[in-house]
Amino acid sequence: MKRPYWVMIFAALLCLCAACSSGGGGAGSSSDDDADDDSADDDSADDDVADDDSADDDSTSSWSAMVSGTAACLGGVWGSSAADVFAVGVDSTGHGTILHYDGSSWSAMASETTATLSGVWGSSGSDVFAVGTEYDADGYPIAGTILHYDGSSWSTMTSVTKMELHGVWGSSASDVFAVGSKDDSHGSPITDVILRYDGSSWSTTTSWTSACLYDVWGSSSANVFAVGWNVTSDSGLILHYDGSAWAAMTSGTRWMLSGVWGSSSSDVFAVGAKNDFYGEVAAILRYDGSSWSWMASGATAAQLLDVWGSSAADVFAVGMDSNTYAGVILHYDGYSWNAMTSGTMHFLSGVWGSSATDVFAVGQDGTILHHGD
């Protein structure tokens, strides 16, 4: 059955991690959250690049557009090396898209799924996980989707959840976490979901009601962070796993958090946006092993969706301008955050690199940017 047009719009917005549900009824939404859907339907070419006046820039900026060969909304990117990179997302029909970069060009892979895909991570080039959500004809989530790549083909795994899955990360091939949420569709309560893979099967762990989780990262199997949104307290949600149990941390912010990454167990960054679709100031928090504190982003009218770095003094955060939806890239050099020129009018929702001079950012309309020498 062909999906309604608004379901396709929702799939693109899911790539933003800016809402928990279709139709603007999810966690953190309000009457002011009904953003202009036109930003997710740009008909321009996948490698279209324009002057971006919203991002004023870092002198070390060196981002260039890559030809992706698709107009899909790309939500996540990860690689095992500079010549083995995967990007996932959703196409105009609402089906999952998977791209692979071999060091010279991007090509489409057979995803074998009708689900949207939003996150990707692997322990090696032959052990890669992609997560997303299967929706019914009315746009409601009916199953969390997990795909696995064994080096030759992708196959569907049993996810054991009907909730949306947004992010995935693991400490090893036999210790993988996937996080997501379920909205209040059909009268069911908003709640998050955390799944764990032990090398043979997935199982659910303790969840929080009235919460949404968008990303997960850890320094080890006993030091894992998951970030999102606490609907009840109207605040950014950060959960921590110590190897035995999950516990909520004091985030100290009323901002929705959508991305997390760290250079070590005592140096972790979380990024996000104000609790409405039109965030005014980029949110960046840093954990020092003891507590979270606010960092000055130097960016106004920006929403950050993902973060990654090669070290504690080389961190990239990507997102979009709240007014134009143009791609925003911030860089941290160990002292301060500075804007880099993205060169694209398309929002960016994922970032990953193999080194400080080999970084990829992905987003709307098949946009893939590369930062290097």
- The CATH class, by name, is Mainly Beta
Share of residues in strands: over 45%
Shape: globular
Please count the helical segments: 1
Query: pLDDT under 50 segments (min length 5)?
Result: 1-60, 275-279
- Walk across the major sheet and give the strand order: 1-28-27-26
Q: Gap between N and C termini, in Å?
A: 47 Å
CATH topology: Methylamine Dehydrogenase, Chain H
Secondary structure: helix percent? under 10%
Label the CATH architecture: 7 Propeller
Broad structural category: mainly beta
- What is the element string, with H for helices and E for strands? HEEEEEEEEEEEEEEEEEEEEEEEEEEEE
Strand elements, count: 28
Mean pLDDT: 82
Task: Give your account of this protein's structure.
This protein has about 375 residues and is mainly β. It has a single domain, classed as Methylamine Dehydrogenase, Chain H (7 Propeller), CATH 2.130.10. The chain is about 5% helix and about 50% strand. The chain contains 1 helix and 28 strands. The strands form 7 sheets. It has a 4-stranded antiparallel beta sheet, with no helix packed on it. It has a 4-stranded antiparallel beta sheet with strand order 2-3-4-5. The radius of gyration is 18 Å and the shape is globular. The chain starts with a helix and ends with a strand. Residues about 1-60 and about 275-280 have low confidence and may be disordered.
